[in-house]
Write a structure and sequence with these properties.
The chain is an alpha/beta fold. It folds into two domains: 2-217, P-loop containing nucleotide triphosphate hydrolases (Rossmann fold, 3-Layer(aba) Sandwich); 221-281, Alpha-Beta Plaits, CATH 3.30.70. The chain has ten helices and 14 strands. It has a six-stranded mixed beta sheet with strand order 6-7-8-3-9-10. It has a four-stranded antiparallel beta sheet with strand order 2-1-4-5, with helices on one face. Strand 9 (198-203) and strand 10 (206-212) form a beta hairpin. The two termini are 31 Å apart.
Length: 298
């Protein structure tokens, strides 16, 4: 288990992370979210031991994370961190050796992953000769060569087309099923919702929302009603508790303050024509994020 307890980090007088605590069990994919400057990168660096917290502790299976356990960790950074003049093979050997792996094991694992991601023929190509998407594949591959017990993924889908996003998702899910502890950060909230049962949102280094995603959505009062058919928009807009209405293709999305407003909307809608859909839905994680942080995540 990864346990982060009351970590705080100052850079001089600047408070970057403020008394942050959370835990992630083996097999869990935990979402750590926040806009740029919220403290995510500092938190990641404290977790993997690159930065020492001003106060608080980070432990993996009850042991402080230091160089004796870093061989069990993988980290895919948001910024490209490959050595572009190396070949893919050389990059893998370099990284795997740093993680304490033997050369034969590195090359065996590399061949398996290159085949899985459909790029076996790139093994002897230099990193700089690859497309952005294939560079991202290599960055991901070298971060998981050592079958990490703890894996941190910061924007793992950057530069990928939908087909390759699916390949990454399959690999990440497989690793979680095999017991890896995974911390996942992405600007794409639909990816976070797909992967993460637990999450934490940072704002100015402080935890502003955390817990199980299902519980967070239940506790968030605002709901959305999706309606398909002919409705009187102006009449619905005047209902007390209706926050707004947006048309999306053939459907209307009616935002309401809480569930009690749904009955009032239904009373109006049921007299409409060609109503083929009336569905009360939980708000998206993106809506909740904006409400808590006050800005979009981009």
């Amino acid at each position: 288990m990864l346990e982060v307890k009351n970590i705080t980090k100052y850079y001089g007088d600047f408070l970057a992370v403020n008394n942050l605590s959370f835990s992630v069990k083996p097999g869990e994919i935990f979402g750590l979210l926040g806009v740029n400057g919220a403290g995510k990168t500092t938190t990641f660096r404290m977790i993997i031991g690159l930065l020492e917290p001003t106060s608080g502790t980070v432990a993996l299976d009850g042991k402080k994370i230091d160089y004796s356990v870093t061989d069990k960790i993988g980290f895919l950074t948001e910024e490209r961190s490959l050595l572009t003049k190396m070949t893919v093979r050389e990059q893998a050997i370099y990284y795997g050796t740093l993680k304490g792996m033997k050369k034969d094991d590195i090359l065996k694992k590399l061949d398996s992953l290159l085949d899985k991601f459909g790029i076996s023929n790139y093994k002897d190509k230099k990193i700089k000769e690859l497309s952005k998407g294939n560079q991202q594949k290599i960055q991901f591959i070298v971060s998981i060569l050592n079958d990490p017990k703890l894996l941190i993924l910061d924007e793992p889908f950057s530069g990928l087309d939908p087909f390759n996003v699916e390949l990454f998702k399959k690999q990440i899910t497989e690793m979680a099923e095999n017991g890896s502890i995974i911390i996942f950060s992405s600007h794409r909230m639909e990816h976070v919702e797909l992967f993460c049962k637990k999450l934490l949102i940072l704002k100015n280094g402080t935890d502003v929302l955390s817990g199980n995603l299902v519980d967070i959505k239940k506790e968030y009062r605002k709901k959305n009603i999706i309606i398909k058919g002919d409705i009187d928009v102006s009449e619905i807009e005047h209902i007390d508790g209706v926050v707004g209405i947006e048309k999306q293709g053939l459907e209307y999305e009616v935002k309401i303050a809480d569930l009690s407003v749904a009955d009032k909307v239904f009373e109006i809608v049921k007299s409409g024509h060609n109503i083929t859909k009336f569905s009360v839905e939980e708000p998206s994680l993106n809506e909740i994020f904006i409400a808590k942080v006050g800005e979009t995540y981009d």
